[in-house]
Design brief:
By secondary structure, the chain is mainly alpha-helical. It has helices at residues 2-18, 59-64, 109-129, and strands at 41-42, 45-46, 65-66, 78-79. A two-stranded antiparallel sheet has the order 1-2. The model has no long low-confidence stretch (mean pLDDT 82).
């Protein structure tokens, strides 16, 4: 009996040392089929995927409509009119460059707004140079 209990103890010790502990973690769920894409995670959460917007390629539509002007689900884009139906001041707008301060009239509101904006920018740049 003593030999039998000694044999069981030796067998139990060998089995205890050879058996590795098994950890049962929760299984990660598989993707919902091939159609469902897994969203990438960044530091601040899921990364937004860029949407591909359709581009108009029809030349006749590009010439006769303001493409992208209709943001509603129903309706159509604004149709372009002949140049004679638009006001004359529309064709005199400056679309090329910003007019320098020296070319502006000092009696205009635009001149003084630009001057104030330039002074604010200059003061902000100077305040950044201060140590404290």
């Amino acid at each position: 009996m003593n030999n039998l209990s000694l044999a069981f103890n030796l067998l139990r010790q060998r089995l205890a040392f050879t058996a590795t502990p098994v950890r049962h973690y929760a299984v990660k769920p598989a993707a919902a089929g091939a159609a469902g894409k897994k969203k990438k995670l960044g530091k601040l959460g899921p990364i937004m995927e860029k949407k591909v917007l359709p581009v108009e390629t029809d030349a006749n539509k590009l010439v006769s409509y303001v493409c992208g002007s209709n943001y509603m689900k129903t309706g159509e884009d604004i149709k372009l009119k002949p140049d004679a139906e638009y006001p004359d001041w529309l064709w005199t707008l400056n679309t090329e460059r910003i007019v320098p301060l020296e070319e502006l009239d000092p009696n205009s509101k635009q001149y003084w707004r630009r001057l104030r904006k330039m002074a604010l920018r200059r003061n902000n740049q100077l305040s950044k140079l201060k140590k404290f």
